[in-house]
């Protein structure tokens, strides 16, 4: 079947016989890479240099990628993620009692993670884990233990809409403004609601039409909305399926991954323009423009 033939067999890998390569693969493939601090995207793949097709069963594959470091032995003491967690500093730097600072940290973290105002008992549960970690080590170790506990809590892992006590079984009822904040955020941002959404939800004003309209516009203008826009195109127009399509190389010799990526990106950019520029819905079908790079054109 020509559809299963996509690359050639090669008895050598850069001059190394395959049986020898299997014995020395870890040494051959291990290397160090200098990266700047912050979020990085790493991808690993085999270069497609196949001159002739061979059965797919003869192709090598990437089984696992392991990342370790830093190699210089230093760990940043003040990062963006740490600043978001440590909203206060303990006694040795500010004179603030450690447990009071821990309570402030977990109050802030739990409000964001649970997507609503939290109770004293919920914070106390996290402080209990903090005390265990603090007893075994430093203040930071205590915060780490409490954070591990928070990330395992059902209030963080699950999104639950509480049915009003007077609601009829199987009936329709309005969700709360806090529940609306979570739904909006996971829909448009694929993430937790920010403090502005939580505050509006807690004050029960988010569902007001004028407030809701302003918030939707704000969220769509935020960079986080790109997650929704890309995912929506991938699911609605089934653009994700392009990854699994391999046209017959005898009929489409010019087709490659670069062209595949350009096809997907064209559709993503087109849909993003419809939403962010508030274009008429009819433009989805009748627009006389699109987004092309040289390869796709």
TrEMBL record:
Q: Which residues form the DUF1595 domain?
A: 101-160
Give start and end of each DUF1592 domain: 175-297
- Which residue stretches, if any, does this entry annotate as coiled coil? none
Q: Which InterPro entries match?
A: DUF1592, DUF1595
Query: One matching Pfam family, short form?
Result: PSD5
Which named protein is this? Answer: DUF1592 domain-containing protein
Species of provenance: marine metagenome
């Amino acid at each position: 079947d020509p559809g299963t033939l996509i690359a050639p067999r090669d008895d050598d890998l850069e001059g190394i016989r395959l049986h020898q390569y299997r014995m020395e693969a870890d040494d051959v493939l291990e290397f160090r890479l200098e990266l700047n601090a912050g979020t990085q995207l790493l991808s690993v793949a085999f270069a497609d240099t196949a001159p002739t097709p061979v059965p797919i069963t003869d192709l090598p594959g990437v089984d696992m990628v392991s990342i370790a470091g830093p190699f210089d032995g230093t760990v940043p003491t003040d990062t963006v993620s740490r600043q978001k967690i440590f909203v206060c500093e303990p006694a040795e730097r500010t004179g603030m009692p450690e447990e009071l600072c821990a309570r402030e940290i977990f109050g802030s973290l739990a409000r964001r993670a649970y997507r609503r105002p939290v109770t004293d008992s919920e914070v106390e549960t996290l402080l209990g884990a903090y005390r265990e970690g603090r007893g075994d080590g430093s203040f930071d170790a205590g915060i780490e233990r409490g954070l591990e506990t928070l990330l395992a809590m059902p209030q963080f892992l699950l999104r639950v809409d509480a049915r009003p006590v007077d609601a009829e079984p199987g009936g329709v009822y309005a969700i709360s403004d806090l529940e609306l904040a979570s739904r909006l955020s996971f829909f448009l941002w694929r993430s937790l609601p920010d403090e502005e959404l939580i505050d509006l939800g807690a004050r029960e004003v988010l569902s007001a039409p004028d407030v809701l309209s302003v918030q939707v516009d704000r969220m769509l203008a935020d960079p986080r909305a790109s997650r929704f826009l890309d995912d929506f195109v991938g699911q609605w127009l089934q653009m994700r399926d392009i990854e699994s399509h391999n046209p017959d190389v005898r009929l489409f010799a010019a087709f490659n991954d670069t062209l595949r990526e350009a096809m997907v990106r064209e559709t993503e950019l087109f849909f993003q323009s419809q939403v962010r520029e508030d274009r008429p819905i009819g433009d989805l079908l009748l627009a006389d423009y699109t987004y092309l790079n040289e390869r796709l054109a």
